[in-house]
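Z., the sequence and structure:
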Amino acid sequence: MQLRTLLATLLLMSLAVLAACHRTPDDEQIRKAIAAAAASAEKGSSTATVADLSDDFDGNAGQLGKRDLANLVRVFALRGEKVHALLGPVSVEARGERMVATFTVTLTAGSGVLPDNAGAYRVETGWRKDGDAWHCITATWTRAL
């Protein structure tokens, strides 16, 4: 009986160690961050939308910074306009110590049943690892249609 208890304890400890060693792969962390940002924008949460952007984030060569994007989400929320983001597949590849994620996104916004604004975009984002977390440092986008 004592041997069985000892073996069960060792097995549970081994499983706990293996679970603690599990780490989400870098590309999956980036995909999750992109999906979370889109979901947060849809909810009108400006803080959560920009949570994974670096403080020095550069959008479309200086057109939009981290604070600008947060303010844009705030404006839509204050106006009662809904933002919807439909993400296409996200491709992530390593480039040296950085990662690049590319995807398409269809954005719609409006306060009525039909959207007032809609557009599909090709997006390329650059990511830098700070400690254990990845932060988006740059993004460029162009109309896909």
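Strands lie at 53-59, 82-87, 91-95, 98-110, 117-130, 133-143. The longest helix spans residues 2-21.

Let me know what you think.
H.
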